[in-house]
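Saturday, quiet lab. Running sequence design on the structure tokens for the scaffold JK sent over.
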């Protein structure tokens, strides 16, 4: 099946400024004339949004790691089938705030689930769809944690604390070393505009600058 669109994912620890950068990137791509589908994980379809509420609800403190993993994958599979694959097929640029690298960083890296098991689960949940480029917003976990703390209300994942976020951060850095062609670490310190320029430079260097044409 010929895939004509470009699939861009953004990753990072909680508080690294991902949501702001996703908004700004989507604006730039749209201004350049691309059809852009902007999504966030978990979520993006009615079924996936229901699963999101289950996952993030702090009342579900007893949730088993296996249940959590499978819920993330279930939400993702529905998003891929219902939205991402059709969008890529018609040539759109898809920008997704988190994708399967989050599952590796959080459920394997931070939660400690088996690496191979999580990788296999990711293959199932993503229905074989691989991002063309993944931008990891990299920041010292202490700084990101302070920022996320400042936002007040914490969901079930954010409530895990600093040590958890440190493991997430380490897993992302290891990922960028393992898959340098797809995964680019971008320094997330500085103003939003400065970070946006760094992201653009990576997109162009990776050849995904075509998304701007
Ligand atoms: P969200 O409010 O979207 O966080 P953020 O704005 O930081 O992206 O909540 C998603 C949370 O779920 C976040 O803490 C990361 C976590 N997560 C996983 O643990 N595994 C996953 O596969 C995904 C997609 C997210």
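Result came back. Writing it out in full:
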């Amino acid at each position: 099946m010929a895939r004509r669109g470009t699939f861009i994912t953004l990753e990072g620890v909680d508080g690294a400024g991902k949501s702001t950068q996703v908004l700004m990137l989507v604006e730039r791509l749209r201004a350049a004339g691309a059809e852009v589908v902007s999504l966030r994980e978990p979520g993006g379809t009615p079924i996936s949004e229901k699963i999101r509420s289950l996952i993030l609800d702090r009342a579900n403190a007893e949730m088993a790691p296996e249940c959590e993993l499978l819920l993330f994958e279930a939400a993702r599979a529905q998003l891929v089938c219902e939205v991402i694959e059709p969008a890529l097929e018609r040539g759109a640029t898809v920008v997704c705030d988190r994708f399967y690298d989050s599952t590796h960083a959080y459920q394997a890296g931070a939660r400690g689930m088996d690496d191979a098991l999580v990788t296999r689960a990711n293959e199932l949940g993503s229905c074989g769809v691989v991002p063309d480029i993944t931008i990891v917003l990299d920041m010292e976990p202490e700084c990101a944690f302070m920022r996320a703390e400042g936002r007040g209300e914490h969901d079930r994942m954010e409530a895990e604390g600093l040590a958890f976020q440190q493991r997430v951060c380490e897993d992302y850095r290891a990922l960028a070393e393992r898959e340098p062609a797809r995964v680019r670490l971008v320094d997330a310190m500085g103003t939003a505009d400065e970070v946006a320029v760094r992201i653009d430079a990576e997109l162009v260097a990776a050849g995904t600058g075509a998304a701007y044409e």
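Notes for JK: The chain has eight helices and five strands. The mean pLDDT is 94. Ask whether to fix the surface positions before the next round.
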